[in-house]
Design a protein that fits this description.
Elements: H1 2-34, E1 37-45, H2 51-57, E2 59-64, E3 69-73, E4 80-81, H3 85-93, E5 94-95, E6 98-102, H4 106-111, H5 119-125, E7 132-133, E8 136-137, E9 140-141, E10 145-146, E11 149-152, E12 158-164, E13 173-178, E14 184-187, E15 194-196, E16 205-206, H6 207-210, E17 215-216, E18 225-235, E19 238-248
Parallel strand pairs: 10-16
Antiparallel strand pairs: 1-2, 1-19, 2-3, 3-4, 5-6, 7-10, 8-9, 11-12, 12-13, 13-15, 14-18, 15-17, 18-19
Amino acid sequence: MKQILSIIILSILFIACGNQKTENAAASDTNAAGNGTLTIDFQAIIGDTNNSVISSNSYLKVTGTYGDIDGKIDATTAASVPTRTPDLLNKYRSTDNNVLNNRMEVSMGQFLLFGTANAARYIDDGMSGSGIAQRTVEGKTGPKVTGTGITKGDDGVITIRFVHAGGKTVDPYVFEMKSDANGIFKIGGGTENFKRSEAVVTNDFDFNTDAASLIVDKAKEGAPYWKGDLQATFENNIIKITGTLTETK
């Protein structure tokens, strides 16, 4: 009788321990699956409008929970490879592929696409080295934006100023990003280091005099967002941005 009782007790303990391990494992899996990761390796050459040079020096590599990207432009066709790279990045930039539900600073999400952009976009968006961005589509010319480009101050702060107008529109949004003194862009902090125009710009804009009109650029309130540090360097007209972000809900 004692032997039977011992067997029963051991069986109960075994089942209880087994259930505990299963529950703990399930909880661990849930935690692991709940927060995505996004690792970025980006590089772009600034101030050059030769597609062969851009192709050799610019790229966007992403690894993460929602798919990987290994993108650049084709020197011959000037098309991004793989095609529709913005759509691939949108899985990280926004919820439900809706740019209004942005999950990171719109400015950073747009800037990363210079890794797979051709010379035409560099010119239109203010990264050609001229310090001016202005777009013409089907005979219509948009406003002139002055003061675009990338600078690195004596204090180590990297400042990026550019614009972007999608599709066939010529009126752009205006963006400004600033790193800290160590070249770090802090994503998800909601700080004034990331700014953008509240609406498209329809009149000429000068960063040197009009930047005060920009608003803080941050992820949409209530949406899951990315958080972490991206390390940037800017030397010899090459901007590099690397780092891993964590999804925060």
